[in-house]
């Protein structure tokens, strides 16, 4: 290990010479030998691959086959021949990324991979928040996923480099959280050796189910606020409509039911539905409105905006007045204010989720493994409009 960090050009030349000499070198070993951080070595490798000095292989890099018999100085030395004999060996992508407190080295920007389940609802504002927070210091690579574990893992693997991708320095991800496949994904994420921050999700990993770092909205608080608002408006018989496929629904339901019990509300309708995009939505919406009429419900909390707007439209077609006969609160506030009437809505702090996730990842990159795991919880707020 050297005790004085070399200049970037000198360091890269020594890195190439070391790979030629040893035939195989882990990034962690190179970082100790050069006296720089693993992420600096990784950036050097990316530059050397780009200019053809090194060749990218699965999960790392090696001396190109055309140069395998040549030493760092261009002579056919024994060291060069030894490197040629070890073409199967390669430099391994780092298993940990840790920078000391302070600025990033060499003016090189870290690369952050971001995988979200949707690019057209809810998540665009999260993305904008992350992009604004990363501006000027990090490169953000975005991939759209789904609510399917296999699809999310495929996108993550491509970013990490398992499938020839960019080889990012850290990950921001909103993965599925239910079922054994989600548990396996959490363990896989924890084993990557890269900083990972979950957005709007909470997962645990390892034999002791320790939490992964996360930034999330307190959705139970948000739905509870909606229940209090309806109670304050004099509603006693209320209903709750949530999306069966949304990871957020469980928290929304928990918070609403808890406050309803606290305030003595009668929850006469608690129904899960398919999303608006599903062919079964029309039937689910009709069933909700039928149940409202039968039970005497005077107010609903509906997750999310699209379903709330559709329910209001169908209610009006039946002659139900909103809010005189049925008050409606939407959850998400993506487009609720554009409805007729404009819908009261709970608004999660979406942009702050993205910015907060970038901030956590930045601190993890700079602070290393000694930094405690942070789980940040943000409060949503209620915007009162004409529908209540």
Automatic annotation (TrEMBL):
Answer yes or no on keyword DNA-binding: yes
Q: Which PROSITE patterns does its entry note?
A: HTH_DEOR_1, HTH_DEOR_2
What keywords sit in the KW lines? Answer: DNA-binding, Transcription, Transcription regulation
Q: Recall the GO molecular function terms of this protein's record.
A: DNA-binding transcription factor activity; transcription cis-regulatory region binding
Residues in HTH deoR-type domain copies: 8-63
Q: Does the keyword Coiled coil belong to this entry?
A: no
Pfam families per record: HTH_DeoR (PF08220), Peripla_BP_3 (PF13377)
What this protein is called in its record is Transcriptional regulator, GntR family
Q: Which organism is it from?
A: Promicromonospora thailandica
């Amino acid at each position: 290990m050297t005790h004085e960090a070399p200049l970037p050009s000198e360091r890269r030349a020594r890195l190439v010479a070391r790979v030629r000499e040893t035939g195989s070198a882990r990034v962690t070993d190179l970082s100790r030998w050069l006296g720089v951080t693993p992420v600096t070595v990784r950036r050097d490798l990316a530059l050397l691959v780009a200019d053809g000095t090194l060749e990218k292989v699965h999960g790392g890099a090696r001396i190109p086959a055309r140069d395998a018999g040549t030493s760092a100085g261009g002579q056919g030395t024994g060291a060069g021949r030894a490197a040629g004999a070890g073409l199967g060996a390669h430099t391994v992508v780092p298993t940990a990324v840790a920078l000391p407190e302070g600025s990033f080295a060499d003016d090189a920007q870290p690369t952050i991979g971001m995988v979200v389940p949707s690019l057209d609802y809810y998540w665009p504002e999260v993305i904008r928040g992350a992009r604004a927070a990363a501006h000027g210091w990090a490169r953000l690579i975005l991939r759209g996923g789904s609510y399917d574990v296999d699809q999310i893992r495929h996108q993550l693997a491509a970013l990490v480099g398992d499938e020839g991708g960019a080889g990012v320095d850290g990950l921001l991800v909103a993965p599925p959280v239910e079922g054994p496949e989600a548990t396996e994904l959490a363990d896989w994420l924890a084993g990557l050796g890269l900083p990972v921050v979950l957005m709007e999700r909470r997962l645990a990993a390892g034999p002791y189910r320790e939490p992964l770092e996360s930034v999330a909205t307190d959705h139970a608080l948000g739905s509870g606020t909606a229940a209090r608002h309806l109670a304050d408006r004099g509603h006693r018989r209320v209903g709750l409509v949530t999306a069966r496929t949304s990871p957020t629904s469980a928290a929304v339901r928990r918070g609403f039911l808890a406050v309803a019990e606290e305030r003595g509300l009668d929850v006469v309708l608690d129904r899960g539905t398919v999303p608006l995009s599903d062919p079964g939505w029309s039937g689910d919406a009709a069933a909700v409105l039928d149940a409202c009429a039968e039970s005497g419900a005077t107010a609903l909390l509906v997750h999310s905006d699209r379903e709330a707007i559709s329910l209001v439209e169908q209610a009006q077609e039946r002659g139900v007045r909103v809010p005189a006969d049925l008050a409606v609160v939407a959850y998400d506030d993506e487009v609720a204010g554009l409805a007729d009437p404009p819908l009261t809505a709970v608004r999660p702090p979406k942009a702050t989720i993205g910015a907060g996730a970038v901030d956590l990842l930045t601190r993890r990159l700079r602070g290393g493994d000694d930094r405690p795991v942070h789980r940040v919880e943000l409060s949503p707020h209620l915007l009162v409009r004409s529908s209540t």
